[in-house]
Amino acid sequence: MSDVSEIAKLSSLLETRLLQHGLIERPGGAVRTLPADFLEKFDGLIDNSTELEGLLRIGYAARQGETLSAPVASAARFMIQEVCEALFDRNELQAFRRTH
User: Which domain of life is it from (predicted)?
Assistant: First the structure.
């Protein structure tokens, strides 16, 4: 699977979780201040809502079919995988990957 398609899939999953917790109002939207439990799970991967919002914007661009440079796509894929692994239960991620 290409970096861009993986970014698109995982960012969609991540946005869904953030929507469920009321941290964004719509896909591609601004991220509210992250609660302490999210920051604890991210454990330094993401230090604030601005960093997470930047990652989500890259994911949104990937889903919209925008071109991402190879270095940006590679770094974003790594980062979004790490963020999702920190935020989601292992079984949840495996189930998502099997169905998407």
Answer: Bacteria
Which of 4, 2, 15 has its CA nearest to residue 87? 15
The structure tokens 């990957």 sit at: 97
Cα distances from 19 to residues 1, 14, 43, 53, 74, in angstroms, run 26, 9, 21, 13, 25
- Cα gap 17→24, rounded to integer Å: 9
Return contacts of 39-45, CB within 8 angstroms, 24+ apart.
41/86, 41/87, 42/83, 42/86, 42/87, 43/86, 45/79, 45/82, 45/83, 45/86
